[in-house]
Amino acid sequence: MKLTKCMCGGSLGDLVVEKDGVKMKAQKCGKCGETYIPGSEMLRYDMIKGKSSMVRKVRKSGDSMVVTVPKQIIEKFNVHDGDVIAFEPHGKEIKIKIVHAE
Ligand SMILES: [Zn+2]
After folding, report:
1. Is residue 6 part of a domain?
2. Which residues surround ligand 1, an ion (CB under 5 A)?
3. Is the predicted pLDDT of residue 8 greater than 80, yes or no?
């Protein structure tokens, strides 16, 4: 989501911030100097830096796209080989339901 105005009322300009060698598209307020980095860019940073174990890269496998399940999810939701994962679209987000195999 792109903001058009800062909390202070100043207008935002596009800017690229570099953090540990990772370039992120951000916005900076011309009035107070506040920098806004979108959540999607933060996620990308975490993924590149391997900081978030809850982020997965999508890979191509034949005609499908494959995503692995994070270890924390496997443990918390007791996911086993053969279980089914159901995707429920909710607007721009997807809810994932784990259905255990008998
Ligand atoms: Zn501002």
Report:
1. no
2. 6, 8, 10, 29, 31-32, 34
3. yes
